[in-house]
Amino acid sequence: MLILAIESSCDETSVAIVEDENVLSNIVATQIDVHKEFGGVFPEVASRLHIENINFVIKEALVKSEKTFADLDAIAVTQGPGLIGSLHVGMMAAKTLAWSLDLPLIPVHHIAGHIYANKLVGSFEYPLMALVVSGGHTELVMMYNDYEFEVIGKTQDDAVGEAYDKVARQLGLGYPGGPIIDKLAKQGQPHYTLPNVKTENPIDFSFSGLKSAVRQLMLREAREGRELNVNDVAYAFQHKAVETLMKRVKHALSTYDVKTFVLAGGVAANAHLRENVEALKQQVGDINILVPPLWACMDQAAMIGIAAFDAARLRPAGSCDISSFSNMTL
Ligand code: KG4
Ligand code: ZN
User: Name one GO molecular function term (predicted).
Assistant: First the structure.
């Protein structure tokens, strides 16, 4: 089955050609350089850039895969969650292709795509637990079957990627904050102490307190006339954020029966988190642990194409009547 998949939920316009879960091409037109000037994603600008890019990216994906419209068996598209204007552009392109080529339309959940990106590195044996860490989501998800998801823990406030971006903004480091803090943290030392994150449920998350604690630390150092060591702040924040994630993961793994554990979402690219998940392999020998390659942690259409194979079998088919949703349950 040859699928053309479209992902446009945020600030990347991406199209992939995926054949039986093998990625033949995956084109990503990123808008990051434009949004950097605004210090974050500017939704209206994002939608306009998706419109400018989408046709060119579709064409590029076909050319790179050496396929034509006539070879396709289905069109897959991210239905949500995300920025509504951005999602609409991908959805309209997908509906147009499905209608004009008379092909089935497969709506895919963005987070399902992030989880399924792990199929690039291994197979899913159930029960499977996913740690989903992105700019909009921080949650623990259980899967007992293909394309069936149960959220067992989630953030009570900010997502971890959002906290990275906000802390970077407080420090005047630019956007997106995750990769910048990750890089600076590698040059930092354990000099500052940040408080532990507390949640009522041991597998829920919370990051807004940690973000505020960084702000308090900055104000305190300024008040006391000390120069702030930004690398050390990055180190302290990164270590506390990853420690918070790993504590929840370890607790959840000790209470749920799990055969496969996967890391998913943009923050899965974080070096310190990846090291910690690698170390987990030694501690939980009988659980198969999967971590996507760096390129597949980011938003791209290959993950939507891979998830589409199960979505097509197990979820209602799409039609030209379906809509995009900025909020959507998994
Ligand atoms: O999954 P994603 O590309 O978009 C959403 O679905 O939200 O995730 C983007 C998030 C941003 O908050 C970005 O700062 C964060 O992932 N991120 C990172 C790293 N690379 C990207 N956070 C920490 N360390 C990184 N290396
Ligand atoms: Zn994403």
Answer: iron ion binding
Ligand 1 atom closest to the Cα of residue 82 is 6
Q: Does the CB atom of residue 86 touch ligand 1 within 6 A? A: no
Domain boundaries, the chain: 2-116+296-314, 124-291
Ligand 1 and 292: CB distance under 6 A? no
160 CB less than 6 Å from ligand 1? no
Per CATH, 2-116+296-314 and 124-291 having the same topology is answered yes
Architecture, CATH, for domain 2-116+296-314: 2-Layer Sandwich (3.30)
pTM equals 0.97
Annotate 50-111 with DSSP letters as a single string: HHHHHHHHHHHHHHHHT--GGG--EEEEEEESS-HHHHHHHHHHHHHHHHHHT--EEEEEHH
**CA angle, residues 101, 106, 94, in degrees to nearest 5:** 50
Nearest residue to 29 via CA among 300, 323, 322: 300
Q: Which residues of 50-72 are buried (b: 16+ CB within 10 A; e: fewer)?
A: bbebbeebbebbbeebebeeeeb
For a pocket test of ligand 1, which of 164, 237, 291, 300 has the largest count of ligand atoms closer than 8 A to its C-beta?
164
Per-residue pLDDT tens over the stretch 26-84: 999 999 888 888 888 899 999 999 999 999 999 999 999 999 999 999 999 999 999 99
Tell me how far CA of residue 105 lies from CA of 47, 91, 139, 315, in angstroms. Answer: 21, 10, 28, 11
Query: Ligand 1 atom 10: the closest Cα is on which residue?
Result: 135
3-state DSSP percent of the chain in helix, strand and coil, to 5: 50, 20, 30
Q: What is the pLDDT of residue 40?
A: 85
Asked if residues 305 and 16 have their Cβ atoms less than 8 Å apart, the reply is yes
- What distance in angstroms lies between residue 267's CA and the mean position of ligand 1's atoms? 4
Strand bridging mode 288-290 / 74-80: unpaired
